Amino acid sequence: MSASKKFSTFEVAQFPCLNDNYGFLIHDAETGNTAAVDTPEYEAYNDVLEKRGWKLSHILCTHHHWDHTGANLDLKAKGVTIYGAESEASKIPGIDVLLKPNDTFPFGRTEVKVIDVGGHTNGHIAYYFEKDGVVFCGDALFALGCGRMFEGTASQFWASLKRLRELPEDTCVYCAHEYTLSNANFALSVEPGNEELLNRHKKILTKRQLGEPTVPTTIGEEKRTNPFLRGDISSEIRRNVGASESDEFDVIFGKIRKAKDTFRG
User: Fold this and answer.
1) Annotated catalytic residue: which of 28, 116, 132, 139?
2) Catalytic annotation on 64?
3) Which of 17, 109, 245, 257 would disulfide-bridge 23, Cβ 3.0–4.6 Å?
4) Which residue is catalytic, options 27, 63, 124, 201?
5) Is 20 a catalytic residue?
C-alpha cells in the first residue's frame, strides 16, 4: 500500500517495491527537486513519478546492495545525480557525488546531513533532514530491528545505532523494508515485560492484517521498544540473550544480533 506524508519543506511518497522493500520519493514542490532514496525497482519509481508529475533530480543511495541500487542506471537516464558513500563508490552504479560521514549538501529548501551507520555494510550511510525532522536509514535501523551484520563489526554497528538513537525523539524514521511483524515477535521473545512493546505488537498485527505499512516510525518509539537500541537499558534483554552484567555494550548488541539471526518465532 502506498502512502504519503508532508513535512515542512517536502513531501515523502512511500510505495512497495520487490517483495518487502519500500521505495521513497522526496519532493519539494517549491523548487521541483525530487529525490529517490535507493532504487529497488525501476517500474515502481517510474509509475509514481509519472502519476505525480514529478521530475527526478537526485538519487540518494544508503548502501551498495542490489535491492537498493538496482534501478540506478535506468533512472539516471532521466538526467539525475546519484549520491552515495565514497567508501562504497566502486559498488554503487552511476555514482556522481561521493559522500563522507558528517558531509552536508542542499536539497530543495533544506539541507541534508550524512550520518555514518556502518555495520550492515561497512560504508552504509543515512540521510538526515534536520529541519524537517526526518531520517532515511536504509537497512541500518528497522522498526523494532536492525540490519544483518554482513560486513561490519558489533562495535561498529552499535556505535552507528547510538548515533541514530541520539537524534530527537520525534524524528521520523524511514527504513527500507517491511520486517516489523517478525521483528516484533523477536522483540517480545527477549523483552516480554515491556508493556509498550506489547501494545505496539497489537497495533502492528492490526496494520498488517489491513495491508497497511508499519513504516515510518520514530526515534522515540524505537528507543522504548526496539531491542537493538535497548541492550544497555534493559536487564531483561541482557538476561534473555545470555549477556552478563559485565559485558561491554557492543558485546551485548552482538549477542542480541546473533539471537535474532537464529530466531524462528
Assistant:
1) 139
2) no
3) 17
4) 63
5) no
Chain Cα centroid distance, residue 51: 25
144 neighbors 187 (Cβ within 8 angstroms): yes
Catalytic residue among 67, 124, 132, 201: 67
Interatomic CA distance for residues 128 and 139, integer angstroms: 15
pLDDT score at 245: 87
Active-site residue flag, 139: yes
Residue closest to 208 by CA, chosen among 144, 141, 137, 135: 144
- Over the chain (265 residues), the average pLDDT of each successive run of 10 is 92 97 98 98 97 98 97 92 98 98 98 98 98 98 97 97 98 98 98 98 97 97 98 97 94 97 89
Question: Quick check: is 27 catalytic?
Answer: no
Positive/negative CA dihedral, 137, 213, 221, 223? negative
Q: What's the pLDDT score for residue 257?
A: 97
**CB neighbour list of residue 230: distance below 8 Å, 6 or more residues apart:** 191, 223, 237
